[in-house]
Design brief:
It is built from eight helices and seven strands; from the N terminus they run ααααβαααβαβββββ. The protein has one domain: Roll (FAS1 domain). It is of the alpha+beta class. The longest helix has 19 residues.
């Protein structure tokens, strides 16, 4: 008699096979990203991360993201930052709130180079859920929604990885469509 796995296990098996296919077909790489340059350098060359670059410079994180690493950066696009209310953006850009802005940015950085296929593999081993400790010290959770990897903070804010595996000389950048928050702003 052949036993049929429950639907949840079957989905996870398909997800694991998908991770292998994604790793073999190659990711979409953002224009302007040079794998021989650092995260800080490539962010500076990106037309899609001007707010992120300004925030990196305002919080003195350029040195960290220019170091050897490796780091994984879940980089909100300019469109992602536009989803924040104007009052939140104004709050973050005030010089007296540099600490809050730095906390927000380091919440998007994980030590180590974590490719999309590694995230998918961790999801397979974690029954569809895994978490990462950020440089800021708080965890973000990764889950799947169809074929999309979704990152969620403890407040319930979520972001989808829209462009994965932009390799850098000191890590990897995954572009996300939202801003995840370490605290209420």
């Amino acid at each position: 008699m052949i036993s049929v796995p429950p639907p949840r296990i079957f989905l996870l098996l398909l997800l694991c096979m998908g991770a292998t296919i994604i790793a073999q077909t190659g990711p979409k790489v953002p224009l302007g990203m040079n794998p021989t340059m650092s995260i800080a350098e490539n962010t500076g060359n990106s037309d899609n991360h001007t707010f992120l670059l300004a925030a990196i410079k305002a919080t003195d994180l350029e040195g960290l993201l220019d170091m050897e690493g490796p780091f994984t950066v879940f980089a909100p696009s300019d469109k992602a930052f536009e989803k924040l209310t104007p009052s939140k953006i104004d709050f973050l850009l005030m010089p007296e709130n540099k600490k809050a802005l730095r906390s927000l940015l380091t919440y998007h950085i994980v030590a180590g180079s974590i490719s999309a296929s590694k995230i998918l593999s961790a999801l397979c081993h974690g029954n569809g859920k895994t978490s990462f400790t950020t440089v800021q010290g708080t965890k973000i959770t990764a889950t799947m929604d169809g074929l999309d990897i979704i990152l969620t903070d403890y407040l319930g804010n979520s972001a989808k990885i829209i462009t994965a595996d932009a390799n850098q000389c000191n890590g990897v950048i995954h572009e996300i469509d939202g801003v995840i928050l370490p605290q209420k702003i």
